[in-house]
Specification:
Blueprint (H helix, E strand, L loop, with lengths): L1 E2 L5 E2 L4 E6 L15 E7 L7 H9 L10 E6 L5 H20 L12 H21 L4
Antiparallel strand pairs: 1-2, 3-4, 4-5
Helix pairs in contact: 1-2
Length: 136
Amino acid sequence: MLTISNTVTLQAWEIELTAIRAMGAGGQKVNKTSTAIHLRFDIKRSTLPQFYKERLLALTDSRITKEGVIIIKAQQFRTQEQNREDALERLKQLILTATVVQKARRATKPTKASQRRRVDAKKQRSQTKALRSRVK
């Protein structure tokens, strides 16, 4: 079971974890042990609230397929248990970031005084540069 928040949890049957061989540089152990974890999570079949599902499906993330399946491959660590924890944590973070509501941006205008200060500064800079030129 994976706890997302106080009210939202994912059951074990919703998350499919498969052990696979890790990619990368070889070694004595790399070719015979399956330490990497391949996580698959079907958003549409899950028990997540509808709000979570809509937000996740609206994300433009390369880990989410067109069919609505999240695929995470964890192979950072040397042990299968650490990679399993890493994959579950990354799934949790992905779900949490999808639910963050962005603050609405309101357009603002600069004040008259700040506009005047900006123009005065530009005039001063122009005058400084003009004084550097050759005397005619």
